[in-house]
User: Fold this.
Amino acid sequence: MANNPKAAPVTFDMGYIDRVRALLNSRPGGDIKSPLAHVRTYGCQQNVSDSERIKGMLAQMGFGFTEEPEQADLILFNTCAVREHAEDRVFGNVGALKSIKRRRPGTLIALCGCMVQQEHVAEKIKNSYPFVDLIFGPHVIHRFPELLYNALAGSKRVIEIPDSDGTIVEDLPVRRDGNFKAWLSIMYGCNNFCTYCIVPYVRGRERSRDPERILEEARELVKSGYKEITLLGQNVNSYGKGEEHGVDFPELLKRINDIPGDFLIRFMTSHPKDATPRLFDTIAQCEKVARHFHLPFQAGSNRILKLMNRGYTREQYLELIDYARSVIPGISFTSDVIVGFPGETREDFEQTLDLIRRVGFTSLFTFIYSPRKGTPAARMEDPVPHEVKTQWFREMTTLQEEIAAAHSASMVGTVRRALIEDAGDGFLEARLSENIVVRVEGDRSLIGNFAMVEITGARSWILTGKILNTL
Assistant:
């Protein structure tokens, strides 16, 4: 794989957007009826952000959007490669599109994202899913209009999966999914090469955006009324490493925090080996940065952490937690944890349970180890039966539910500032700075506003409350 993290940013070329629009308008009835696109996203927040760029380009090319694949002229799946289950879901859903293609041969079907960047997956799609017209990897999202034009204008399948680290392309159009919460990518790729993870192989090496372009985008979001901005990167803590501008992640946080306006800053994801006391000191000094930190620990055993190539020990992780709590009272921690990594023993697993008890996470994203072809862990001996791993998983989730329930009960009676969101079932959700959700009643006109919320009850880890006043 190429390694060119300091490649100069590329400015997006609008030329093919105009050519696609002209091609669509030249079709019978094209100047009357807008074609419809169905875009489905799998995986992480970075994929969601990528899909917002894809939809931005589609909108400028003249597409409208539909949630129903059967109504779409273009069906695009933006895929994820992190877990086997995600790939299985994609293959199942792509297979179901065959009947749509049979009924409506003119429907164009496209696959993009991390999953198709894997050579063995791309080969499977080429050979087993001939009705897929367009396949492209995450490194060439900025070339989507060109690739779509070629697919629409030609009779052959279009496949573009370069083996490169990609580049940074500025000024891509964007069609955001929300109107008060926004994703803001600050960097791409990953240099960590955890032995279980496919991301560096499909997303390429780390490359950071210019801080002034990030600040420009953040100012525009605040000006447009966004109340929550989430900074994205595979490892935001390593933002700016090796760059001539000299701006690291704590400094970037400070600069965004200094933008005038009432908004909240979140970020993900962080790697413990690059989280420093200075970062926590900066968060403590920035009133707009959320009092929540997602810090994946993955395993509580030093032996397993070494096998994972994580670059820190459990002792170092716990020191970070203690320091953060000393300078940011009330900060909440969430994390990722893998159960059943190859070679993990019951003793190793007990150390994971112990770390969970000691930290007291507000929530965990928990996974049974899923081998990824092409990663070192996939070649490791894995003698523990899946049934045992499943039992460990249940033990861990039960423990976390008990911890979350106790934490929720301790919050009853407090009054907190929160951002009001739609729960989708007639209720609203009030999301605290600590990323804890309180279920409330209220008029939908409150969505997207900050409010003071009294927490009135806790059932297990679910909090209920009432809105006292908006801010």
Summary: The chain has a mean pLDDT of 93. The chain is about 35% helix and 20% strand. The chain has three domains: 10-160, 171-407, 415-470. The radius of gyration is 23 Å.
